[in-house]
Amino acid sequence: MKRLSSVLAGLLVLGMAATSFAGEIAVKGSTTVQPIMQKAAETFMAQHKGVVVSISATGSGDGAKALIDGSSPLAMMSREMKPSEIQQANARGIHPKQIVIAYDCITPIVNKANPVRNLSLAQLKDIFTGKVTNWSQVGGANAPIAVVSRDSSSGTFEYWGEHVLKKERVYARAQMQASNGAVAQAVSKQRDAIGYVGLAYAKAPGLKDLTVDGVAGSIASTLNGTYPVSRGLYLYTNGEPTGDVAKFVSYILSPAGQKIVSSVDYIPLKSAPKAPAHHKKGKK
Q1: What are the domain boundaries of the chain?
Q2: What is the third-level CATH fold of 105-223?
Q3: What does the longest C-alpha to C-alpha distance in the chain come to?
Q4: Phi, psi of 55 (to 5 degrees)
Q5: Which of 63, 95, 177, 243 has the highest CB neighbour number within 10 Å of its CB?
Q6: What is the pLDDT of residues 125-173, one digit of tens each?
Q7: Cα-based angle 11, 16, 19 (whole degrees, multiple of 5)
Q8: Helix 255-263 to helix 243-253 angle, to the nearest 10 degrees?
Q9: pLDDT of 10 over the 60 cut
Q10: Separation CA 55–CA 38 (nearest Å)
């Protein structure tokens, strides 16, 4: 009888644990996508009182891991899932579905006091790989360049590395940061620093966003393909989303959700009937 009571108690605890997550959506991944998801979650929760959406932004790689290990039904990513990640997911019975929710461009930023206004893609590559180490080499003051980069778990880091560094290694002395916000803060506090962030972070206090080959990062230049470092922003789910997750995704894709995309300085899908010219369309 005592053993039966213990078993029943154990089942009760398991039942409580299983139901304690009802109505909760854990969203993990990209800090670039975070501003969209955070604002969308606030509005969505106000309209769906029984649902709690929690946002944890530590990088696209962590979003992929969370989807694969089942700790999140919704991964935020500023890059496409890698074939190796999809293979890992499939091995666990997870079938990632890619959902494009917005478009973005990656913008180089410097301290507001820096007189440099434009850099070429070639100059950016040389700075971020450590071949150019003084601002005087690119038309600035005679001062050493402090390179600030995202860390390797970031989709922004990977996209910048592929499209700007051409897969060369980032400068060994670069200050590696865990989020767009951390990059913006580091650059704003160092007169001779340079970093790169998603468009929504480029106008933070103390910063100046640079043009690249004479083109400013913007909605217009991303859509017409003249800005060279643009990309899609994604959510990934395990197959077709269902329940509250499906409702949340539908809200983000709705006109109201896409207004939120625009309000946080990203590019809504309605502005882009086709993917930007520099955005390589991914496989689902």
Answers
A1: 25-103+231-271, 105-223
A2: D-Maltodextrin-Binding Protein; domain 2 (3.40.190)
A3: 84
A4: -110, 125
A5: 63
A6: 999 999 999 999 999 999 999 999 999 999 999 999 999 999 999 999 9
A7: 120
A8: 60
A9: no
A10: 7
Nearest in space to 119 (alpha carbons), one of 209, 20, 241: 209
- DSSP classification of residue 220: H
Whether the CB-CB separation of 168 and 174 falls below 8 Å is answered with: no
In angstroms, rounded to a whole number, what is the distance separating the alpha carbons of residues 41 and 64?
A: 20
What is the DSSP-derived secondary structure letter of residue 243?
Answer: H
- pTM of the predicted model, to two decimals? 0.80
Residue 237 vs residues 70, 232, 246, 254, 255: alpha-carbon distances, Å: 10, 16, 9, 18, 21
Count of C-beta atoms within a 10 Å radius of residue 171: 19
Superfamily covering domain 25-103+231-271: Periplasmic binding protein-like II (3.40.190.10)
Encode pLDDT of 36-66 as tens digits: 999 999 999 999 999 999 999 999 999 999 9
Distance from C-alpha of 235 to C-alpha of 245, rounded to nearest angstrom? 11
34-47 helix and 255-263 helix, angle to the nearest 10 degrees: 140
Q: How are the residues of the chain apportioned to helix, strand and coil, as percentages rounded to the nearest 5?
A: 40, 25, 35
Whole-number Cα distances in Å, 247 to 53, 85, 257 = 12, 26, 12
Under 8 Å between Cβ of 82 and 88: no
